[in-house]
Amino acid sequence: VQLQASGGGLVQPGDSLRLSCDASGGTFRSIGLGWFRQAPGKEREFVGAIGWMSGLSYYADSVRGRFTMSRDIAKKTAYLEMNSLKPEDTAVYYCAAHIMGRPWGTTRETDFRSWGQGTLVTVSS
Predict the structure, then answer these.
(1) Alpha helices, DSSP H only, in the chain?
(2) First vs last C-alpha separation in the chain
(3) Measured distance CA(96)–CA(102) in Å, rounded
């Protein structure tokens, strides 16, 4: 299965944006899907993850209350709704599949796979 994030763009502080993550090439069998981001000059960091069947989710402290994840199982698509965007949210955003058997609640990149190309979100006035 390949994952591809899309929907990035240039927005102003306080704006909203919705990213999509499409799974293609087969049945999505992962227990969930995670979102990560990498800001210029920084390491990639965890944003949040959602259980594919349960819909349960958890978030990084930096985005909790502003970002919301969802998924459409039939469309094999996950979404990251980002509200009240800040300049520090500027980053390339990636989605990846939560590896079966890895703990729920993990934020480690190594517990996710099938990384696709990211989508750039720029928050600037």
Answers:
(1) none
(2) 37
(3) 13
Strand intervals (E) in 16-117: 17-24, 32-38, 45-51, 57-59, 67-72, 77-82, 91-98, 112-113
CB 47 within 8 A of CB 60: yes
Give CA–CA dist 4/116, Å, rounded.
Answer: 5
Q: CA-to-CA distance for 45 and 94, rounded, in angstroms? A: 10
Q: Mean pLDDT, to the nearest integer, of 66-81?
A: 96
Q: What is the pLDDT of residue 1?
A: 79
Mean pLDDT for the stretch of residues 86-98: 97
Residue 119 confidence (pLDDT): 98
Name, in order, each residue with C-beta under 8 angstroms of 5's C-beta and a sequence gap of 6 or more.
19, 20, 21, 93, 94, 95, 116, 117, 118, 119
Q: How far apart are CA 51 and CA 7, in angstroms?
A: 21
**Chain center to CA of 107:** 12
